[in-house]
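Friendly challenge for the regulars: who can give me the structure tokens for this chain first? No prize, just bragging rights.
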Amino acid sequence: MRSLPPVCIQIIASIGLAAAISGCASTPKEPVISFTTHIYLDGTKSFDYTSTMQSKSKSKPSGKRDKPPRDGAPPRDDKPRNSHSSHEDGPNKEAIAQRAQQRLIELLNTNGYCTEGYITLEEHIVRTSIAIKGQCIEQANENDKLLFPNTRKSKVTEEVINPL
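First reply, four minutes later:
Bragging rights claimed.
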């Protein structure tokens, strides 16, 4: 029986080591962030911030649903079938909110939209996504109106009245 030359053993060991390291070195995915602003006529500055964590698995759902057996009984598996995720009410909800608040503060410090802080008006967390609606403490100045043009429609619309 012949043994492999030392060079081959080193190459095989290097390949194995590289494969092991690359499997453990996967970096966590950054969230997809959306930030929209609105400055009202009275100078109130508001924003909508959403942060959605990307799924770790690269596989997409097949779109196939479990078919019940021919006797009409529901499919049997160990997973409970309910519409609420365990993440919605678990301790993870608080951690998601804290991370999102930290990222929002960093974003506001970077873009200068709310220089004196903000008030959270609404916060919604669903599975791996959070939406925060907020209002800046300070009023908008002329510079704010130039730097942050309205990126969403106001809920209040102006009506044009036609004279008779």
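The helical segments are 6-24, 86-89, 92-111, 142-147. The beta strands are 32-39, 45-52, 118-126, 129-136. Your move, everyone else.
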